[in-house]
Recover the amino acids of this structure.
């Protein structure tokens, strides 16, 4: 069995455009509607939507590889780099700051040329200690050893893919970078799909290839959207479809340079991620309505902090003890603050009473 890069016509990959055309047209239509809808919103709301989607992109891209990042720290780091005030945010670790810097470089500077040095910088940002887990890895340089994608325990390993030999990497990556920077007659969305596939097929680093490959796709999608503002998260959708993602990659990396299956999967996943973005917009607009009502009268910093928490995926319902703990105040003060928010139409009691009395945001 030969891998795709071992075939004579590599890297001249092909696909059935007639099969992809209806799906590409649908994706382009939804993309246009979403971007038009978001551009009609106030600048502050667009920034908030971008913060939500970039946070999801970074957290989920790492989750695909089995690394669980602290979402609050990721959000705090993005906000800091973008000059946004998110109030009381958790300070981010050096590792998370590096991942955020990589993604912002890819999206905010999406029209800058891709270079070997830039990719090395991204890789070094992902692994600031020069280690991946317990093992030392080569950082900020192409790998120097063989690379296999393997699953299963010791004695039951299954090899899914073997990447090109290390000696081939300078030539392979020079060719990829030259193609990525060139102007070709290819739809920008198809270019994003091909760029991700091509990069992870070369697998040029010791670790982090998936995350950097998805950052390259985000860079290409930002070019396709003609905006650095991110209104949807491809990685959030990929993470929810992780098995079919790896299946589509593995199937298309063997025996043929026809990658129609991968291109089709990518377009369908992108279409679902754009559809999912409507929920993000609803969330942002809900926040805006709540704060418009909150700001009709002076508000305590305690109340501001709690409302922000309730708007950011707060688990369960609010009660006086949770309020007191979050704001470091007494139960009596917490109850007075909550009653004030009920009178102003911000909070309401949930069904039940007594010790189980709890509160939730009013749907405006």
């Amino acid at each position: 069995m030969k891998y795709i890069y071992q075939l004579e016509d590599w890297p001249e990959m092909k696909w059935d455009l007639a099969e992809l055309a209806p799906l590409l047209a649908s994706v382009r239509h939804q993309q246009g509607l979403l971007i038009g809808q978001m551009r009609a919103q106030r600048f502050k709301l667009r920034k908030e939507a971008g913060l939500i989607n970039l946070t999801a992109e970074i957290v989920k891209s790492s989750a695909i590889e089995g690394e669980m990042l602290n979402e609050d720290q990721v959000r705090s780091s993005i906000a800091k780099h973008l000059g946004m005030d998110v109030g009381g945010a958790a300070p981010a670790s050096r590792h998370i700051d590096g991942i955020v810097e990589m993604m912002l470089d890819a999206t905010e500077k999406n029209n800058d040329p891709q270079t070997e040095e830039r990719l090395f910088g991204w890789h070094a940002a992902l692994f600031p200690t020069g280690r991946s887990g317990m093992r030392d890895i080569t950082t900020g340089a192409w790998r120097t050893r063989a690379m296999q994608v393997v699953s299963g325990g010791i004695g039951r390993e299954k090899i899914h893919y073997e990447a090109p030999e290390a000696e081939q990497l300078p030539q392979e990556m020079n060719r990829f970078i030259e193609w990525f920077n060139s102007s070709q007659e290819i739809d920008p969305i198809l270019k994003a799909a091909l760029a991700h596939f091509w990069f992870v097929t070369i697998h040029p680093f010791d670790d982090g290839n998936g995350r950097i490959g998805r950052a390259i796709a985000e860079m290409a999608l930002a070019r396709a959207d003609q905006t650095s503002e991110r209104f949807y998260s491809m990685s959030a959708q990929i993470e929810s479809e992780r098995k079919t993602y790896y299946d589509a990659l593995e199937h298309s990396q063997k025996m043929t340079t026809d990658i129609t299956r991968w291109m089709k999967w990518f377009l369908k996943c992108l279409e679902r991620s754009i559809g999912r973005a409507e929920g993000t917009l609803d969330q942002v607009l809900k926040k805006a309505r709540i704060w418009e009502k909150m700001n009709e009268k002076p508000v305590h910093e305690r109340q501001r902090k709690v409302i922000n928490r309730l708007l950011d995926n707060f688990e369960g319902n609010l009660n006086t003890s949770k309020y007191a703990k979050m704001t470091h105040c007494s139960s009596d003060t917490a109850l007075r603050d909550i009653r004030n928010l009920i009178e102003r139409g911000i909070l309401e009691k949930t069904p039940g009473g007594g010790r189980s009395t709890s509160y939730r945001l009013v749907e405006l």
Remarks:
- The mean pLDDT is 91.
- The first strand starts at residue 131 and ends at 132.
